[in-house]
Amino acid sequence: MTQVRLHYWAGARAAAGVEHEVFDAATIAGALAAATGRRTRSPGDQQFAKVLAACSLLVDGRALHPADLERQLSANTTVEVLPPFAGG
């Protein structure tokens, strides 16, 4: 199993309550599920999951395609978790 480091930015960091965390997971989907499970205190507590669902995910500076969430990882991976933002 590999290590997946989730690095949260802005609103995702606020929702997670930490800047980053590391999970042992075979896929990125597995790490995201573990992060969500860590924060779900009751069946109705889905705030973190809602924030995560709105986020873009970057791996090595590239947007992660949804099909790649279940791809088996062969090396430790850092995933940048970026919530939507607006600029001006």
From TrEMBL:
SUPFAM superfamilies associated with the record: MoaD/ThiS
Protein name as catalogued: Thiamine biosynthesis protein ThiS
Organism: Microlunatus endophyticus
